[in-house]
Amino acid sequence: MEKVGKSKHRNDCMICGQELIYFEDYKDLECMYCHNIFKSNVTCLEGHFVCDGCHSMDAIGLIENYCKETDKTNPMEMAIELMKSPSINMHGPEHHFLVPAVLLTSYYNLLMKKDMKTKKLAVAKMRAKDIKGGFCGFYGNCGAAVGAGMYISIILGATPLTKDSWGLANLMTGTALLSMAKIGGPRCCKRNLFTAIEEAAKFTEEHFNVRLYDYENYHPVCSFKAKNRECLKTECPYFTGSSGGYDG
């Protein structure tokens, strides 16, 4: 086997950044994103494989495709895996879709309703297009928090005319937003995403008795901080490790 020399991250593994290794023989490999099986002769040192289609896909398409195909149920784990792709920027409006996408995926995978999941992801994709970049600072409402509220709105079928579901969708947004505001700025799409997912998991268990993941013990430790010029460092709850931490 032959090692491929390192140059920039896009030439190495999209998942972990390790060097790629080419093998003489082709074998069946499962794509880390779409989970389809392909004949290939290349993985990274850790065994990760990404198919050509997912490697060249844009952020929104990658998120939707991954969520449609995965059977995973931990939304934090899914979000971290997706954010390691170079298709997803350090900051950007793709996070406004990423939040509801992984939450919907977790919820419907737990309920074993894959057909419903696919339909709901399409709704979230359309709605997320209306949440502009910079929404947090210019409109006083972070798109990740709106994404959490969107998730509740979609699973409940809320509209401007519904009663209880309207209240719960807005309560979800407000709950996530309050947690983000208490941490303070400048903005960080990773930090706000982590916060939105954690608050949504608590909310889902409290109101619907569905446990998306073990949020008390599964606490991500940010692996993206070196890319963020405005990182809050030790003032960010995801900067350093804690008991039960996960290297995200």
Query: Mean pLDDT, nearest integer?
Result: 90
Give the assembly state of these chains: single chain
Q: Give a count of the beta strands, DSSP E runs of length 2 or more.
A: 5
Q: Tell me the span between the first and last alpha carbons.
A: 30 Å
Q: List the domain count as a whole number.
A: 2
* Number of alpha- plus pi-helical segments: 9
Molecular structure report:
Helix 8 runs antiparallel to helix 9 (189-208). The protein folds into two domains: 2-53, no CATH class; 58-247, no CATH class. It has 248 residues and is mainly alpha-helical. The chain has a three-stranded antiparallel sheet with strand order 1-2-3, with no helix packed on it. A two-stranded parallel ribbon has the order 4-5. The chain contains nine helices and five strands. It has helices at 52-56, 59-69, 75-83, 94-110, 114-128, 135-139, 143-156, 164-183, 189-208, and strands at 2-3, 20-30, 37-44, 219-221, 245-247.
What descriptive keywords fit this protein?
248 residues; mainly alpha; two-stranded parallel sheet; 9 helices; 47% helix
Short précis:
By secondary structure, the protein is mainly α.
